[in-house]
Design a protein that fits this description.
Helix 1 (8-21) packs across helix 2, helix 2 (28-38) crosses helix 4 (57-69) and helix 3 (46-53) crosses helix 4. By secondary structure, the chain is mainly alpha-helical. The protein is elongated. The chain has helices at residues 8-21, 28-38, 46-53, 57-69, 93-116, 120-142, and strands at residues 44-45, 73-77, 84-88. A hairpin with a 6-residue loop joins strand 2 and strand 3. The longest helix has 24 residues, at 93-116. A 3-stranded antiparallel sheet has the order 1-3-2. It has 6 helices and 3 strands.
């Protein structure tokens, strides 16, 4: 029996989160695991995740690692065991910092492309997009 119980309202949240994050590039299964973990007061193991989401253990493991790489989830080792628990991170700074760095790199790449193009129209478009990315990077770093 899973230690995780999910109410109808919580399932609705999980499904709506998956729909919301899909256009941003997060696969529905990844978003569902993230939603499930957002609702858990304590770290949970893969066996409980498997039972709650009705997915395979390998899918749960791969999905949890994707969320961990995105710095949305953290792993907790269980002393004296191979067992691993997962919880959402309470510090969103790393995720925002990574996104800000990516925006800065994207802006620099756009500026480089603007210099290399022969078209004034294309150069203007690239510089405008680079400016927007730089502005967003600044806002994210300030936050």
């Amino acid at each position: 029996m899973s230690k995780i119980t999910v109410s109808a309202a919580q399932w609705q949240f999980i499904d709506e989160l998956a729909e919301l994050l899909y256009p941003w590039g997060m696969q529905p299964g990844v978003a569902r695991l993230y939603g499930l973990l957002l609702l858990q007061p304590e770290p949970v193991g893969l066996d409980d995740i498997v039972k709650a989401l009705a997915i395979s253990k390998s899918t749960a493991s791969v999905t949890a690692r994707q969320l961990e790489r995105a710095k949305l989830v953290k792993r907790h080792a269980v002393r004296g065991s191979k067992r691993v628990l997962y919880s959402v991170t309470n510090d969103n700074t790393a995720t925002v910092t990574d996104q800000a760095l990516m925006l800065g790199s994207f802006a620099a790449l756009l500026e480089k492309a603007a210099i290399a193009t022969d078209s004034n129209t294309v150069a203007a478009r690239l510089r405008k997009t680079a400016g927007f990315c730089d502005a967003m990077r600044g806002v994210m770093e300030e936050a």
